[in-house]
Amino acid sequence: MSGTILIPAETIARQIRTVFDAWGMTPEYADVAVEVMVDTDLRGIDSHGIGMLPTYQRWFDAGLINPRPDIRVVREAGAVALVDADGSLGHPPSVTAMRLAIAKARTSGIGMVVVNNSNHYGAAGYYSLMAAAEKVIGLSLTNVAIPLVVPTFGRDAFLGTNPIAFAAPARKNQPFSLDMATSAVALGKLNVARRAGRPLPVGWAFDDRGDFTTDAQTALVSPRLAPLGGSRVLGGHKGYGLATMVEILCATLGGVPLQGDRIGHFFLAIDPAALRPDGGFGADLDGLMDRLRAAPPADPAQPVQVAGDPEYAAFAERTRVGIPITAILAGEVEAVCRAAGVPFLFGG
Amino acid sequence: MSGTILIPAETIARQIRTVFDAWGMTPEYADVAVEVMVDTDLRGIDSHGIGMLPTYQRWFDAGLINPRPDIRVVREAGAVALVDADGSLGHPPSVTAMRLAIAKARTSGIGMVVVNNSNHYGAAGYYSLMAAAEKVIGLSLTNVAIPLVVPTFGRDAFLGTNPIAFAAPARKNQPFSLDMATSAVALGKLNVARRAGRPLPVGWAFDDRGDFTTDAQTALVSPRLAPLGGSRVLGGHKGYGLATMVEILCATLGGVPLQGDRIGHFFLAIDPAALRPDGGFGADLDGLMDRLRAAPPADPAQPVQVAGDPEYAAFAERTRVGIPITAILAGEVEAVCRAAGVPFLFGG
Fold first, then answer.
1. For each successive 10 residues of chain B (348 residues), what is the average pLDDT?
2. Which chain A residue shows the shortest CA-CA distance from B84?
3. Is 0.95 topped by the overall pTM?
4. DSSP assignment, residue B278?
5. Which residue in the set A184, A233, A291 is minimally distant from B235, CB to CB?
6. Are the beta carbons of B275 and A281 separated by less than 8 Å?
7. Inter-chain residue contact B245 with A166, CB threshold 8 Å
């Protein structure tokens, strides 16, 4: 990529932190958000790390994000709890919530914590991996306030890309780690196709008559993403159903108004040792992952992978060489720094 | 359908029960299995009701199913438990497990029960709807021992169609009820296309070189179903990831050997009143469902539906007129009756 520079994770962290400080964010919450964002960049999920900073600036400027929130557990009953994010950026209340879910899983075998009154929490998979790092199974869901996904038989976008992230701890392998939007593709992929002048694959996005469009320019005017599965005949109603399930568990269960400014998140932690105290879960998961990777590939040059493999490869590479920042993103970050009155650290 | 007869649910129940009795099934377990199977037929899911009886006969004859199992809770810790099905047909231990999960949700806010050492449990959605009928959110998953689904980049089938069923109780509406295989389509749809002499849609099944095939005959020789999403570019890796997640939560968490004879099931119940004691959950779910159904359709003749709508319509119709039994299925049931030495009840 022409104009792309490689920036060490430490520099990215310092850059985001100086901006958050200038925005008046509570220091301990800034720490958490920076940690989540940089980890996301290291894992290769460029859409949800520092790439979100210009968007976060717009939201802060519009008063949509509370820089000094009072994040609290407002309800707790047995193995479940509800956390009020008080309008915070989503990362700090989500880390609080998943920590609480893990603690509950340790004592009750399972723990569920829902966050309401929140905002964008970055990559869903960060939180499920928090659980896996503690040898606990993790599930992380969020609704997305922006209507992007068209319900089966519908004309217009109604639901967000409502992702599902699931991680499970193995013994020898890195955790199984699935992190997926319930739409056929993320909106970012339409932008990539538009910039490259490429047609969209049939099955990504609809036009305003409910037919698939291959024109990225048109598709981006008023996005109508297909749910996972695409058309009805290929199972699009299943992706639509999953997106609605995520909406119910995050927004409806959390008491978050439909298509308002705020969103909700759902975190689940399950201690496999509660059912298999011999540690057999991790060993059997190794067996499953090893057998999947050893399955005969259709093309010998492209082995079968297991969810998480691409992100672990990116993490290893980027920890070594740094995180690629495109010239466009560098320019946007520079503008954010200028507006915040803090030094831009990716120059020269 | 030529040769299709309509049989009242009561007659179907009596027919299955006489067969189960002849097979020596414990009476109270026979009651449960019959209830689940007939409810499934009433909801229009023909593949998982009495249509399974010929297959169950083969399994009973092969000694794969224990007719008089000792179904027990073998481990219990806080809000979770493990049930040993002792080789039972899946329905009885699954009803036991979901009841226990619901009871735990009442006291702990959430309950999770895993079943191991089990067999086919019918339609996944029966158990999630058990929860919804008790005003509790329900999740029901099962792995499937038969390899049918090809992992992304793989050549051969490895995973089962591993379904996800999720139900949530509304206040005015029938429960939201999603019940979906994590494959693009069920195997049964390939059979329907074959019998009708129709080509398969591109995206359902692969040939042995990893390309999609439209030839139902070839596709059925050694089934290689696409995961939900189909090709990699349309998100097939997400369906593959979901199928693996279900495998992990049912088989790996339950300690069920990979691709052995037995399978596992996973049941989760969440009491929404634990987080929203004002009953706001049901009211807000009504709002979501009502707004989805009122969303502008692409084709005015085909309104937007919500997961569960087709099954509720089938239930109303079939309760009134009876359950359609094709001539082929009637013949198969007659053969089952003859082998069991019991009267065939669908004749003349």
1. 86 98 98 98 94 95 97 97 98 98 98 98 98 98 95 96 98 98 92 87 92 92 95 95 98 92 97 97 98 96 97 98 94 97 91
2. A275
3. yes
4. T
5. A184
6. no
7. yes
